[in-house]
Specification:
- This protein has helices at 39-45, 49-52, 67-78, 120-137, 142-155, 161-176, 181-214, 217-228, 233-257, 263-293, 302-356, 364-398; strands at 24-28, 34-37, 83-90, 96-106, 109-115.
- With 399 residues, the chain is α+β, with helices and mostly antiparallel strands.
- The chain has 2 domains: 24-176, Beta-Lactamase (2-Layer Sandwich); 181-398, no CATH class.
- The protein has a 5-stranded antiparallel β-sheet.
- α7 runs antiparallel to α10 (263-293) and α9 (233-257) packs antiparallel against α11.
- It is elongated and about 90 Å long.
């Protein structure tokens, strides 16, 4: 049975509510010309399949949508990445409906699956859209309003549109409370790994914070060496050794915790991409089942079937990437431990100098205490990081 009422809606500016169980699907060629229109899409949009096929997709675009949103969508898609955004569309009878639109590339264009929006991010998006529309009405370009949106997201702790996109889909998907039995295991695995990676990011952040506190100690040592003149000559050499080892440690920390290239960032990106791909695949699976039950006249669902298989393959690939990225973490932790051991030697040399210059108020004791606290904290964090990385590998191998 079709999930959507067949009652002809009135003409005018009325909202059509998308049922929670509906998945509105369509596909276009690279130019945005519709090549497939699912039955739910046709019903909500108040068009027949014949009216939609070979029409430009902008036929359903509503004037209340900021151009900056579409600027970001096309910019993301042209970069080869999927995108998810709240969209207000118009119907054939000049009514409207809101959806969370998930869009990705296919071999011959683009495909979209849209669902009913209902989380807090929907309200956030609508308020941001109002500001963007006002900006564009005042003469700002779509690029200007798009950049303003990105700034607003960053102020809310969302670094980029890709992160926001995955957040929207995950939030709305989980709010539906529907996970097919065949997907329960894979989503449960990704939830567990996400928790572990989040814990590891906090541990790495803790190391980075401690490192920043002691990063200036070589400078302090050089200042002391200059103040003590000949008596502090050894401190200058100690400072150089510490600086060199600290730089090596900083580079290793970047391999672990770098924002764009660190192993933890790679794992988090793979998790986000894999989860989104599997969620999108499930939505297409639901649409395929519905089309088989109640096909629109002339409907060809091969595009849905092919994209469903492709997205599941993407998820499998991302899971492999999680495992590969995770394997490097114990090695990085071991290398960091070796640098800590090297810094411990420097700390001991500082103690020797402090004892030798006991009669001088050198300030070395304070430096030694700070180094000791940093080394102890880092050693503990590295042990926990290695343990959590091992847990991830065990879970991956058992999946």
């Amino acid at each position: 049975m079709n999930a959507i009422s067949k009652i002809t809606p009135a003409r005018g500016s009325e909202e059509r509510s998308v049922p929670r169980e509906a998945v509105l699907t369509s596909a276009t060629d690279p130019r945005g010309v519709i090549t497939f229109a699912g039955s739910d899409f046709c019903d909500i949009a108040e068009y027949s399949a014949d009216q939609l096929l070979n029409a430009p997709h902008k036929i359903v675009r509503h004037d209340d949508m900021p151009k900056g949103v579409f600027y970001l969508m096309w910019d993301t898609l042209k970069a080869g990445k999927p995108i998810c955004a709240y969209v207000k569309n118009r119907t054939a009878n000049d009514n409207y409906y809101w959806v969370l639109a998930n869009v990705t590339l296919t071999e011959n264009g683009y495909i979209s699956a849209r669902i009913h929006p209902e989380t807090k991010y929907f309200d956030l998006a609508k308020s941001l859209y109002e500001e963007m529309l006002a900006m564009e009405s005042g003469g700002k370009s779509p690029e200007d309003s798009a950049n303003w949106l990105l700034t607003q997201l960053q102020e809310k702790g969302i670094p980029n549109i890709e992160t926001f996109s995955a957040l929207l889909l995950d939030s709305e998907f989980k709010n539906r409370g529907i996970v097919t039995p065949q997907n329960e295991a894979i989503f449960a695995l990704m939830d567990e790994i996400t928790g572990l990676v989040t814990d590891m990011q906090k541990l790495a952040k803790n190391i980075e914070t401690g490192f920043k506190r002691v990063r200036g100690e070589p400078v302090n040592l050089r200042i002391l060496a200059g103040r003590l003149e000949g008596a502090g000559a050894a401190l200058g050499t100690i400072s150089q050794n510490y600086d060199a080892m600290a730089q090596e440690m900083y580079e290793l920390l970047g391999r672990l915790y770098g924002e764009d290239t660190g192993a933890l960032a790679d794992m988090f990106k793979a998790l986000s991409h894999g989860r989104s791909a599997q969620q999108f695949a499930q939505l297409l699976g639901e649409a395929i089942a519905h089309e088989n039950d109640s096909p629109t006249e002339g409907s060809q669902i091969d595009v849905l079937i092919n994209q469903h298989a492709r997205l599941e393959a993407v998820c499998e690939q991302r899971i492999r990437e999680i495992s590969v990225a995770g394997k490097s973490i114990p090695d990085i932790c071991r290398s960091l431990r070796r640098r800590i051991n090297g810094l411990d030697v420097v700390k001991l040399l500082c103690k020797v100098e402090s004892g030798r210059m006991r009669e001088v108020d050198s300030g070395l004791d304070g430096i030694i205490e700070r180094l000791q606290a940093f080394h102890d904290n880092t050693d503990t964090s590295l042990a926990e990081l290695s343990a959590k990385a091992s847990q991830i590998q065990q879970k991956m191998s058992a999946f």
